[in-house]
Amino acid sequence: MSIQKxxxxxxxxxxxxxxxxxxxxxxxxxxxSVKEEVxxxxxxxxxxxxxxxxxxxxxxxxxxxxxxxxxxxDFKNAEVKKAVYSPLCRDNGTVIDDLIAYKxxxxxxxxxxxxxxxxxxxxxxSSKTKNFKIDLKNLSDDYSLLAIxxxxxxxxxxxLGILGNSDFPYYSILETxxxxxxxxxxxxxxxxxxxxxxxxxxxxxxxxxxQLLNLGVKPCGLASRDVLRLEVCYPLYGHELTDEVTPLDxxxxxxxxxxxxxxxxxxxxxxxxxxxQLVKLSLEKGIPREGxxxxxxxxxxxxxxxxxxxSVVTGKGIAMALVEKDKNPKDKKYLINIRAANYExxxxxxxxxxxxxx
Length: 358
Fold this sequence. Notes:
Gyrase A, domain 2; 33% strand; Elongation Factor Tu (Ef-tu), domain 3; alpha+beta
């Protein structure tokens, strides 16, 4: 299978981005340095090409009921123009993917899924439509998607005339027209900072990208995106979330609304006793990496790092890890094994940094 390219692939090459395969696409890992790109998003504004993400459109009189049924979170009671984050689970409660569903209207919903899971998600979701009056379309090839993140994102988009002056709360969505183009703009983000995701045609995305760069918005790659999301402890499918765990194992119990009438996986999750607990750890010295062993103070292996990196903002090695719930130490003392040496880790009850989202 040949590797795919986003509509902005040529623009990345012109900027001499470091490219690498990701989820079947040739994607930019970084343009300058990870540190510069992270700080641009934390302090000013950065733009990410995330056109590799998948988009499904659900329309019809049962659209809301259908989306509410396939997700564990409460979508039915969300207001029109709101976004809802949720795991997508199997009947046994294990995680297929995590997604965001946008309620454009009561009969029209946009679902955004991870690039690596487009086919898997499509096959699962389309297999569940039988008892619902809906039409389901895979529009993943139709959209380009740019994520503009950082404290200056809103004034920059307003200066371009893309955002109006109407109220636009966090985790909401806006349909608008700009320069003859239909745009869908979400205010969600994956960095912890304020920011917007602009779904558009491929041609508009190319022009929009250049406009943003001309205004000093820094192009950012997937490497800085991973550091940014880990600093604020956002989970990533394939790391904190996998086919082997449930949302209750991965710190996402808040997304499982057992009071709902019905949803896929409800019966299993209602009876499920979590096997794992997600913990947040930092090191004064050393960089934790995915797969490194987590030990208790008696050097017993109790889990492993699911995501680890060097935090640009804190200057420390940071990690999220899944530990076995029945072995999780009450004293919250953990060690991380790095190259045959064990390093004392600091336990964090909250994210490593507080982002600036609205």
